[in-house]
Amino acid sequence: MSSTPFIAVEGPIGVGKTSLAKAIAEHYNFQLLKEIVEENPFLGKFYDNIDEWSFQTEMFFLCNRYKQLEEIQGQYLSKQIPVVSDYHIFKNRIFAGRTLKDGNLHKYMQCFDILTEDMPVPNVIIYLNASLDTLLHRVRKRGRFIEQNMEPAYLEQLAEDYETFMTAFKKQHPEIPVLSFNGDELDFVAYEADKEKIFSLIDATLKKGEVAR
């Protein structure tokens, strides 16, 4: 794993990943990597009919995230330029596992394993979670048109899937520190003290791991 900081912010839809990643990029002067969301031509159809459009949606995200990470590796991490991302490509496993049927999931995972075999791995992960009420409030507040038909049950299940995945991830990858924050208790957008608390833990984690800054 590289000593150059590569921080990935993860969590379910609406939890505040992009807002926190932007704040980290500004505070530490890191390069910001934002996931492609609204550019996905299948996403609106996906929220209308998950079964019909899940494979196309997930494949679009996989290919675009692969391309982004490939560029980040070549343009920044390989030159010791720190990066913070509002996602990591492992999230594709969470979404695909929830939305794809057995046959398509098998095909998808074959593609995933090939594409991610030598992708850069974050050396710090920040995991944000929150209750369904908080997630729904933030999704509605940001007002993305393509998310307006999202079923609350889908979002609730997704949050549970994240919890399950992250619990397993921490056991499988003890070498990668995971900083977890509850979005019901912290509001780093509204309160500077909450943001500083997160920065303080990032500082300690980077120092402990002797990650260069």
Write structural notes for this entry.
InterPro entries: DCK/DGK, Deoxyribonucleoside_kinase, DNK_dom, P-loop_NTPase. GO terms for molecular function: deoxyguanosine kinase activity. This is Deoxyguanosine kinase. Its EC number is 2.7.1.113. The protein is an alpha/beta fold and 213 residues long. It has a single domain, classed as Rossmann fold (3-Layer(aba) Sandwich). Helices cover 55% and strands 10% of the residues. The protein is built from 8 helices and 5 strands. It has a 5-stranded parallel sheet with strand order 2-3-1-4-5, sandwiched between helices.
The first-level CATH class is given as Alpha Beta
Number of helices: 8
Structural classification: alpha/beta
Biggest sheet: strand arrangement: 2-3-1-4-5
Q: Could you say which overall geometry the principal axes of the C-alpha atoms support? A: globular
Order of helices and strands: EHEHHEHHEHHEH
Radius of gyration: 17 Å
Classify the helix fraction into a percent range: 40-55%
The number of strands is 5
CATH superfamily, by name, is P-loop containing nucleotide triphosphate hydrolases
Q: How many domains comprise the coordinates?
A: 1
Report the CATH architecture: 3-Layer(aba) Sandwich
Sheet-strand content, in percent, reads 5-15%
